[in-house]
Design a protein that fits this description.
The structure is a homodimer.
Chain A: H1 10-34, H2 38-42, H3 53-72, H4 86-102, E1 115-120, E2 123-128, H5 129-154, H6 161-165
Antiparallel strand pairs in A: 1-2
Helix pairs in contact in A: 1-4, 1-5, 3-4, 3-5
Protein name (chains A, B): DUF1993 domain-containing protein
Chain lengths: ~170, ~170
């Protein structure tokens, strides 16, 4: 038995969004319980030049849907980065998960050999699909989920490692 | 073409440790340049009840070597959590990578069907190898690498997303 490129990406993202959604729920509940404006959590950052919580969720969303698109050659929906509340971030997660669920696993066939070129300020980075999945998409996705978790932990939200792992 | 359980774990960890080692190097260089005691970075945390930088590196090490051991049935070396300096954390990473390199990829054959039981304060969690790899080992490994990065970012170390991704 072995793993397809679908196995190691889309179900992992979907599970990650379940975790992220539950952690955000605890963040909102904590803000309410403490009488804190939830927007202060949504705007919080680990460092002044890092993205706030909202940006971490938006980049997790983009990473996952772009991965599905790049490995299949299909277009992914574009979601504007306009979320400013927990409710809107949850809706963004919901739209992302709906999109991931809509992509036929069969469309990923051969995705490990597909040419993927990432463009950033530093230029272009060419990948073959398998390396893109393991060296970019998965690490990047977990980066944003973990950083979202870390921001809420820094704000005192009572979440623990089991919330992050989802067990 | 598909992926073996070895493909989706050990090379990913080894690459993650290359990234983590380079990020730690930048942390030490920044402390030196700023005239800050590097130990203050090694002991820094995102939240009072989270592990410090040293603990994040130790848990990344444990996650990776335990994964190799659990998926193969071989014993992993035990490393005491005694690191208090960047140099010692780099040595811990080196010992971990040496161990990962020493395990024969052939020993992972059938690892996706192996029974794995994790024990924590909350009790026992049973897994089959494939779920353990995708739902626990990989997310947990990236959690600790990302949190180590986040701690250094919080301390003002000039590292960016490309350092984390390793491109």
């Amino acid at each position: 038995m072995s793993f397809s490129i679908y196995d190691i990406t889309i179900p992992v993202f979907r599970r990650g969004f379940t975790v992220l959604s539950a952690v955000l729920d605890k963040g909102l509940a904590h803000a309410s319980a403490e009488g804190v404006d939830p927007a202060t959590y949504v705007e919080a950052r680990l460092a002044p030049d890092m993205l706030p919580l909202s940006g971490q969720v938006q980049r997790a969303s983009d990473t996952a849907k772009a991965c599905a698109a790049r490995l299949t050659g299909l277009a992914a929906p574009s979601f504007p980065d306009e979320e400013t509340s927990f409710e809107e971030l949850q809706a963004r997660i919901g739209r992302t998960v709906d999109y991931l669920a809509s992509v036929d696993p069969a469309a990923f066939e051969g995705g490990e050999e597909r040419q993927v070129t990432l463009r950033s300020r530093a230029g272009e980075t060419p990948f073959v699909g398998r390396d893109y999945a393991l060296q970019h998409a998965l690490p990047n996705f977990f980066f944003h989920v973990t950083t979202a978790y870390g921001i809420l932990r820094m704000k005192g939200v009572p979440v623990g490692k089991r919330d992050y792992l989802g067990f």
